[in-house]
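Weekly structure sync, notes
Attendees: PL (lead), two postdocs, one rotation student
Agenda item 3: pending single-chain targets
PL asked that the sequence for the first pending target be pasted directly into the notes so everyone works from the same version. It is reproduced below exactly as submitted, 227 residues in total.
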Amino acid sequence: MELSSIILPLELSLRVAGLATLFSFLFAMLLAFLLARKSGPIPAVIDALCTLPLVLPPTVIGYYLIIVLGRRGILGHALSELGINIIFSLKGAVIAATLVIFPLIYKSARAALEQVDQRLENAARTLGASELRVFLTISLPLASKGIIAGLILAFARGMGEFGATLMVAGNIPGKTQTLSLAIYAAFQAGDDATATLLVIITSFLCIFLLLTAEIILKLSAYLRKTK
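Predicted structure, written out during the meeting:
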């Protein structure tokens, strides 16, 4: 068992999950801000589309990405001419993970924002605060508990992404092989020792993230009570 066969997949998993969580957070917060407390057919359709990756099989998401970003895809040819290759690259792994974990952050953020007391937001508007300032100084701090929980869960899910990543980025050691792909490769090769060790590492990291989320939520609730 080579040490690199453990370190490289771990490093790639952390990098992919971290970047995917960051990108998902930016887009999810924007949409949650725009759609919170909105009703009607258009917001309902947008909400359904944002939630769709949560229920679709990861292989279906990977297939859609290949259709769009593949070398013969809708955008893939134009990207290739610009020297941007998504398929079988780290960028492809990040995009796949971003799409898969996006609903976790979006749903958590929207639910948290909708639970914020509107009287506090309206009071800030009455005092002349802009919508952006209301969001940044009132809505976001009060909804931070749910948003943080969604972020941590999304990061953990991003580390374990398999299906969409395999289809879009492939399973290239040292380049796109994350922990979940390394486990699959080791198992297929009959290397039970490496597979078992990677499973233990992955399980430990996920448990650590879940416990961290629980601690942050309880600490946040305690700090609010003491104010």
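Discussion points:
- Residues 4-226 form a domain with the MetI-like fold fold (CATH 1.10.3720.10).
- The chain is about 80% helix and 0% strand.
Action: rotation student to compare against the earlier draft before next sync.
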